Amino acid sequence: xxxxxxxxxxxxxxxxxxxxxxxxxxxxxxxxxxxxxxxxxxxxxxxxxxxxxxxxxxxxxxxxxxxxxxxxxxxxxxxxxxxxxxxxxxxxxxxxxxxxxxxxxxxxxxxxxxxxxxxxxxxxxxxxxxxxxxxxxxxxxxxxxx
Length: 146
Prior knowledge:
Strand content: 5-15%
Number of strands: 2
Helix content: 40-55%
Shape: elongated
Oligomer: single chain
């Protein structure tokens, strides 16, 4: 099993997203604890090292609420009370090894289906976080302000 964003040591940026005032990082992937438990006999030391933290964190009652609040899909085009930007610009690198571009495309489609103007582009040969060009961003901001 690949733990992806919810790292075994609970030290990724994503683990920090789900942290609380009393615990700065949280495990959030409900599939990892059962996978670790299934490997207990084969890897007892790793089981001892990781299972308890995963099992405890995913049982935290407030975690589900933090996960819900962090998901913009719960608010776009729904009856939830929320404010959103009038315009959206999304740029994703075609060489992004961190996130599938289908995630950003789903966000762009949800915004468009909710009647929100969205400027979406998949930028060729750019990795994660390098897909927006400063001058183009400034031009886009200027175009919506005029």
